[in-house]
Predict the 3D structure of the following.
Amino acid sequence: MGTSRTLPNVGILLALVTFVAMLTLGLDPMIAIAVLVLWIGSLLLATGRPPEEPTVVAPQPISRRSIRKLIENSSTPVLVTDRNVISIANRTAREMMGKHVVGQDARVAFRHPEAIALISENRSGNATIHGLIRWQDIWQINRQSLDEDLAVIELTNQSAEADISRAHTDFVANASHELRTPLAAILGYVETLREDSGDLSTPTAQKFLGTMEREAQRMHSLISDLMSLSRVEAEKHDLPHEVFDLRALIERAAHDAAGSERLERLDLDLSVAPRVQGDEKQLEQMVRNLVDNALKYGNLETSVKVELAIGRDGMARLSVIDQGEGIAPEQLPHLTRRFYRTDPGRSRASGGTGLGLAIVKHIVQRHRGRLNIDSDLGKGTSVVVRLPVAANDAPESKGSDNKFEESSAKLGIES
């Protein structure tokens, strides 16, 4: 360092001495100055430092510890294998497959022919496998080789997508079947009447015409319910903003459902008049469906009670109670499924479409309410809907309705 600084100083001193000597000898001053500048510049260039080259940092190899930290908190099951032995399993994989998988051969851990074939080939690839972890599940296994020994296995659960696809397929199949049945009856009776003499006043013709009208009405009801269900599902994320009197709505809808021929069986107990925020048409449909079901499946000699009250939780509580045969406990969780019927023959004979309670469930969900169905064999069925009261009318909460909460949790069908 000291030597490099001394050399230019000595050179500059020599250049000055030479410059003075040139002037003494009578050389042109301008030439002497030029020579002096060139000499000093050459000294500075000769002794200057070369530019420093950038420091190159060698890439560090990925350690197993860094891989473990990278994948540990992933919600997707991820495994790292070393010569097909599981050396790392993240938390999700351990919870799903058990802690014992670490140290196992991956082929033993999965025990599925397709997975074993993919791992044994020691290559990158993927496969969709039914029953990889549990027999009813569908998983995609994706294996990526890192080098000759290490590989990463990622598992993706595709069961939900398959369930949605299956539900859509089942829905279309059920709807097609439900529509085809009355349509076949109508077409069959029409063909029979056309082949007849043309006299529609005969008892047989009148019977056929009555059946055709009944089946056509059933098909009309089914199409209407399908459209209603589709509309409610499309709007399920939109909270309605209209505020109205719930008591007046229930009274009106209950009378519509009963009609003049069943009106005497209605027992209305509407002691409160809460205001709710919602879709008036949908809530009317909900009440009509509940009252119609109760009148249809309850004992024909007994009344159906429709009660409106304010629950201990401050929510409006609508109860529709019949005194029918009741429903078996194992059937209760399935009542809100599309086209589910506890007694298919009786339901079709009474004009039921199998969509009424499914529509009720979606309407209740859209209104941020709760639905509970409770039943005792031989005693009857009680359907309870709870809806939030409009903000300005909401009373101070005094605790929850414990009996309702117990029943809802027990049956597992609360929306």
Notes: The chain has four domains: 2-47, 64-157, 162-234, 243-411. Residues 13 and 40 are 10 Å apart (CA to CA). The two ends are 83 Å apart (CA to CA).
